[in-house]
Design brief:
- This protein is an alpha/beta fold.
- The chain contains eight helices and seven strands; from the N terminus they run βαβαβαβαβαβαααβ.
- The chain has a seven-stranded parallel beta sheet, with helices on both faces.
- Helix 4 links the parallel strand 4 and strand 5.
- 48% of the residues are buried.
Length: 253
Amino acid sequence: MKSLIHKVAIVTGASSGIGRATAKLFAQKGAKVVVAARRQKELDILVDEIKREGGEAKALAGDVKKESYAKALVEFAVQEYGSLDIAFNNAGTLGACNATPDISLEAWNDTINTNLTSAFLGAKYQLPAMLKSGGSLIFTSSFVGYTIGMPQKADYAASKAGMIGLTKALAGEYGSSGIRVNALLPGGTDTPMNEEFGNSPEVIEFVKNMHALKRTATSEEIAQSALYLASDASSFTTGTAMLVDGGVSICKT
């Protein structure tokens, strides 16, 4: 069943990982998808894949930290497809991965701007476009800074926790307009970004064992949860920080 038929979606961070898997799934479920990231070549490859599988997609490359790009993405979606119903603000960075005194102000600002400010800028232009018929706005946050305090992740944790506050504020502000706003909180996921955290056998095993399921997720598994939040299956769900974390938040063994 095509649960997103006649819907138009923006997916940021779509060149790899969770964003890529979600863009493909949204298209498979009938959505017309605008894919966004910095790397034009990777976006073009993704669009070709989606079209070969019978879906509809167009790409617009740019930097999510720039307000002009946030505005252009919405204008592009409306111009090409006539509306905007879903926005998955998924682009992000792991940040500095340093002890807090060793995080430079430049690195701090880059993490906050990439993760949190980009989410605000996306919403600033996506929300007005959704006012005509309602919609679903989704942010990719994290269990880090929400259920777990992880050493050497102050910038990342602050940015991702801030997204949950943004989610709740916007859900309250726009609920009466038929716009739902939710945060998706993945656990460890097999993505290129996750490999930046560490790809030695010891680190991989350590991360797996943090989870109650004793494994990490695939990008496709997280995409299924994004689909739930995007679709009418979650029609009474808003303002949530939805953990899709394999039990990492409750695991003590």
